[in-house]
């Protein structure tokens, strides 16, 4: 088809050697998570002929990592967490390879596998995701001690909790930690939660939000220890973890230790290669590494700003951008005119957004909400009984206060509208007045924003704008 | 809370044991009313305690814990056993009269050519045959069956056609015999699986002494042997359905039959499991209101009102059902009968027709098909309440979606053609289709109305999920779905880029819609099969989905 198209256009007389290479070697993607698969889909849509192979050591099919907890809790099976049926991959000619990448040879442009023969590539995308942090705690490698990131970690957790253990200690007060607590709670396992900061998720959540979550943690009978860190894990006579010692010297008996103190980029496949890395794979704004024809995106990447973005959403967005860049790069090599139809867009995350769920409390955030805010830059309304919270954050510029961030717990705000308000720099006053338009709660729900509006206008001695 | 669970289970066991005991030992020291109340209340209280212990032991919020780890809800052995039990129950209720389990009586009569009965060999048997001991109204037939005491009716000199005044087909057959010049050889036929009737021409020497027809002077011409089989239906009526007599007599003025018993259990299930929904979704006002609506329509319009109408000798009408779901309501026979009887029947049917032609498109325009399928309809009502633990078992595959579109529109075509054929046939007095249109409606009634909609529709909950009928068969759903897709203000909006592709929405969609596919692309969901139950929005951990009514324009946003 490409040949006929090119001949019809009268631009190129024969299929170039590069074109041939695209069909035979094509694109190899290491990692079948949201980033790798989104990149594959995007590249396929823009470039019908490039060969696309996706390697994964973790699973046969792409699954939603965010749903791992629901498998453990029995809400779904692995099958339900897979966004695409097996036919999807064959229909879109996405070849799936289940294997372990040993090393990348940038000179010979090949990826060495543990079991199969090496994969030769024209373009390589590294989307290897993350791995959980281990900070050198004594006993951190004992059986019964684990993090939670991969499918294999889930299997390990199943085995570790199979015989009804009594108590688990989780160290690290963030999202994975609270999800692990929720998971264990459904198996009636007592949980002690160690949080380094003075409040839950203290480097992200302002105090009012954290307090609401801490109440929720308590309502689920989980022991929360703030300002506490893990110091050491002690084994029993079978060399399994049996006791945790905190940095206050407290000893806690347990049969499982959850290491949820964050994740870091997974760079094991890049060992020995000359692809530049720091905390993550170093890339430019177009998600290119220092090596020609090698891209990287997702959790494993360190952006030019120095940031590593470890979210599902940023993985998806980076996947779209890198997929486009790969198609562009392929067409450039083939000198194919179709490259003109693909915009050469760098990665621009746009207005920040994130969401989570803390037991029964949903959380959404848009824009910038610092953990420590000055009262003059923010207004918050909390309903402890209904477990609801709305917060607006603005930037003061003389008399002009521009909205820069939203937080909400236990109620839903419209993403597109909040992002638009931030982009167009609406005043906090305007936003407070028009909050009903941003309400995304289901029908028949009582409007949760009314109290916020009342207290906001009272505080600033003003009235609603229309 | 754990204690509540144990007490609850014990109460349910008491209920089931009582039922089983009554089935095999119908005579008890309690009055039937007390017994029925005891059974229903122990089941209800037991169920409630179990639900309370399950859902009130945790703060309000979505709780689908262990659904796939439990045998009942995860297609395990318990689930399969329950499915088999449910299917069997439906087979007995709907098709019980097709399972013969013995003989209820046998009689022989000699009749003249004119049809006059000249001799009856065993009159008691004739009575037993004619008056179904289980279904007979107005007398303590169960007692009669047990004691065997009957009042012998003198059938001599009566017409053969009078034997079975309610059996239209038999009437016709006997009328044929009467109209014949001579009856030759032996005829054997059976009607509605209850009777086997053999007619044999009798020679003058065959029976001595041969009775003679006083009117014509000729000897008996035909021997009629009638055997009535006892069926599972009759057995069930005597041993099971009649337990509901106290309630049936109060509500409808007649003893309970299979349909009353069935609708009593159906309503009970919707109410009990409706309370379970109240507990499980107590944080979600949409679910609370929708469940309350279903319970109201089932109790009021699909149980109490039709029975009370019957009590007052009015047509037993279901205001919450209309064509093509309750297809009889646009059948010519129903209309003619209502017009003949006078009274309110015709007005009721007019309501039904108005709902089909006007009400349905209007309400669907404003609200989508959810106004009916998940707020009013009883099929949906059971699926949303008793079926809630099984909704995740629906198939989400692309293949199932393709199959459902074929089957549901085929059923719509089938019932439309049947209705049209019946009307054409009726208006031309049988000139076009003869008896074929009737046969067609019988085939539809058996395979679609009974087997597909009933037996498979509910019996298969634990195997394939809750909405098999609604999704693959219901012709009304096909119409509502088309309206929803092309001309309705309903959609499920997605919240920007917040979808994390976890799959909860698709998993818990009982209609097998891959909601996630749309949500992760930020695309509004407008599918003809969506019944607007709102569970996808309830289970979404990031609040990405919202059921809304909005402007027609721009609702397909991608």
Task: Give the SSE map.
The complex is a heterodimer of chains A (466) and B (558).
Chain A: H1 2-9, H2 17-24, E1 27-30, H3 34-46, E2 52-56, H4 68-73, H5 86-91, E3 94-98, E4 101-105, E5 110-113, E6 119-120, E7 123-126, E8 130-132, E9 145-146, H6 151-161, E10 167-171, H7 175-185, E11 190-194, H8 207-219, E12 223-225, E13 230-235, E14 241-246, E15 251-253, E16 256-259, E17 263-265, E18 281-282, E19 294-296, E20 301-302, H9 312-334, E21 353-358, E22 361-367, E23 378-383, E24 388-397, E25 400-409, H10 415-423, H11 428-433, H12 450-459
Parallel strand pairs in A: 1-2, 1-7, 2-3, 7-19, 9-16, 10-11, 10-16, 11-12, 18-20
Antiparallel strand pairs in A: 4-5, 5-6, 8-17, 13-14, 14-15, 21-22, 22-25, 23-24, 24-25
Chain B: H1 2-24, H2 32-55, H3 77-95, E1 100-111, E2 117-120, H4 123-130, H5 141-147, H6 168-179, E3 186-191, E4 195-201, E5 222-231, H7 232-239, H8 245-251, H9 258-280, H10 285-311, H11 332-341, H12 345-367, H13 370-373, H14 378-385, H15 398-427, H16 436-459, H17 461-464, H18 468-472, H19 475-486, E6 490-494, H20 504-508, H21 515-519, H22 535-539, E7 545-549
Antiparallel strand pairs in B: 1-2, 1-5, 3-4, 4-5, 6-7
Helix pairs in contact in B: 1-2, 2-9, 3-16, 9-10, 9-14, 10-14, 15-16, 15-19
Cα-based radius of gyration of chain A, to the nearest Å? 25 Å
Strand content of chain A: 15-25%
Largest interface, and how many residues on either side? A-B, 44 and 47 residues
Q: Quaternary arrangement of the chains shown? A: heterodimer
Mean pLDDT of chain B: 86
User: Looking across the biggest beta sheet of chain A, what order are the strands in?
Assistant: 3-2-1-7-19
The helix/strand order of chain B is HHHEEHHHEEEHHHHHHHHHHHHHEHHHE
Helix/sheet category of chain B: alpha+beta
Widest beta sheet: strand line-up of chain B:
2-1-5-4-3
Low-confidence runs of at least 5 consecutive residues of chain B: 136-150
User: Ranges of chain A with pLDDT <50 over ≥5 residues?
Assistant: none
Assign a percent range to the helix content of chain A: 25-40%
Strand content of chain B: 5-15%
Radius of gyration of chain B: 27 Å
Strand runs of chain B, count: 7
Taken from the alpha-carbon principal axes, the silhouette of chain A is globular
